[in-house]
Structure formats: C-alpha cells, structure tokens
Design goal:
With 262 residues, the chain is of the alpha/beta class. It has two domains: 82 residues, no CATH class; 170 residues, Vaccinia Virus protein VP39 (Rossmann fold). It is 37% helix and 17% strand. The protein contains nine helices and seven strands; from the N terminus they run ααααβαβαβαβαβαββ. A seven-stranded mixed β-sheet has the order 3-2-1-4-5-7-6, sandwiched between helices. Helix 4 runs parallel beside helix 5. The protein is globular, with a radius of gyration of 18 Å. The N terminus is likely disordered.
C-alpha cells in the first residue's frame, strides 16, 4: 500500500478531516497522517474538522500552532498500527487547545477516561503545572503500550499513571473530596453519564471537565439514533440541566463540551 493510499484511507476514516499538511511533516519513519484530500469526505454533516467546511478547517489548522515531531510520529504510528481505529484519536488542533487549557489553569491533578494510543494524554501532561500528575484510565493493553512508549519518549512517563480496567471502577475508587483540576472523557459513549457522575463531585470549584464527541459525527440528529448516538443525545440533555456546572459546547473536533464546576 502506498503512502498516498494510506493518507486517503485515513482521511476517509476520519470523515475527511484534514488534520495536518503533508508539507509540514519530515521524512517519515512511519506513514504519516493525511494531508487535506479534496473530496475524501462523504458525510455532509462532517465536511471539515467534523462539522466545519473543509476550507474553514484548513484555515483554522494553518493558523494554529502545529503538532511537534513527536506528536506527528504518534499520529503516523497509530495510523500504521491501528488503521481501523484512527477516529479514536483527537485532532492536533484539539490537542493544542487542551495543552493550552491545562497550562492556563495551572492544572496539577488531571484525570483522563479513554487513552487509546496516548495523543490526548501527552497534550494534557505537557500543559500541567510543575509536579502535576495525570491519571489515565483505559481497558486496552495493546493500545496503551504505544501510549507508554511515547510518554517515555516525551520524558513524561514519571508524571502519568495508567490504570487498566473498567474506568468506572477506577473512578469510584478515587478520593471523594474535590481535588481534580481537569478531567477529559473520551471513552465508550454509553458510559459517559456514569463517568460524569463520578467525576463532577471530585472536580474542584472552578475545575473543568472536557467531554469529547458530543456531536458524534451528526448521528445524534438521526430520526432513530443508534445506541451510542442516543446515549450521547441523552448525555447532552442531562448535563445541560446539571446545576453543579456551567458549560459550553464547542465545534472543536467532533464536538467538545467544556464544563466548569461551580
């Protein structure tokens, strides 16, 4: 399979999302993530960075700080090793946003639910304040083996703890006081509300929860949503009524809800 074929398949798998340009990438040791491929998107609900038109998304990415060489390597190796799971990885622009948010907050205690190959965890950990710790929850030894390798390459492995197993059990075992600065939910969609209910009481006043895929590729608008889409639709309605937080849904990636604990 040629590199161009991999780029095309990657873009189609991501709904045509143009994550980074080919020109921005050095000579690869692994096939890189896709360049912007005209016509790759077949879903009118996701014509750019999921829900932005391609030209707007391309402009947005071009005027944002790009991922560095390490993150580009992780994008490429993830696409090479797990080509049918590339949609599990957040886009570089979302990663940059998360790094900046963690840094602006001075976050020291961070929890991630759903780690995959480690892109989002690297972004969060890079933004943490000195002495900060990131707890990652995932169920896959295979995916997170790659994450561990890149945490080590980034010199962040001593600041990131991985707990393998059902995330709900991990969260329930955490201290119950309000100690978490920042949390990120990006795991099984039907578990979102349960993760939310465990995290919100543990978020410090003024702390933040980020929730990914809250537009779920437009599937929430279907007349008869599939189970995951219905779960996200119900989740969105439930958290909107949650008076413990104030929130905004951002058109970043596939919909990113940012909730601030009162």
């Amino acid at each position: 399979m040629t590199a161009d074929t991999r780029l095309t398949q990657y873009a189609r798998a991501r709904g045509g999302v143009c994550k980074i340009s080919r020109e921005s990438l050095p000579t690869p040791r692994f096939p890189r993530a896709p360049a912007c491929i005209p016509g790759a998107n077949l879903d009118p609900m996701a014509s750019g960075s999921e829900h932005l038109r391609p030209n707007l998304h391309e402009y947005l990415v071009a005027h944002s700080s790009p991922p560095d060489a390490l993150l580009r390597d992780l994008i490429a190796e993830t696409a090479e090793r797990f080509p049918d799971r590339v949609t599990f990885q957040i886009g570089p622009e979302q990663g940059t946003f998360m790094t900046m948010l963690a840094s602006l907050m001075g976050a020291r205690q961070v929890v991630e639910v759903g780690t995959f190959t480690g892109y989002s965890s690297l972004c969060l950990a890079r933004g943490m304040a000195g002495g900060g710790k990131l707890l990652c929850c995932d169920v896959s030894e295979e995916w997170t083996t790659l994450a561990r390798a890149y945490w080590q390459k980034a010199g962040l492995d001593d600041r990131i703890e991985l707990r393998l197993g059902p995330a709900l059990g991990t969260l329930r075992a955490l201290p119950t006081d309000r100690w978490i600065d920042l949390a990120f939910i990006d795991a099984d969609k039907q578990g979102y509300l349960s993760y939310w209910e465990e995290l919100v009481p543990r978020i410090r006043p003024g702390g933040v929860i980020l929730v990914d895929n809250t537009l779920l590729h437009g599937r929430i608008f279907a007349a008869a949503p599939d189970p995951d889409a219905q779960a996200i639709k119900d989740f969105n309605e439930q958290v909107l009524r949650d008076d413990r937080v104030e929130l905004v849904m951002l058109p970043v990636g596939d919909g990113l809800t940012l909730a601030r604990a009162k």
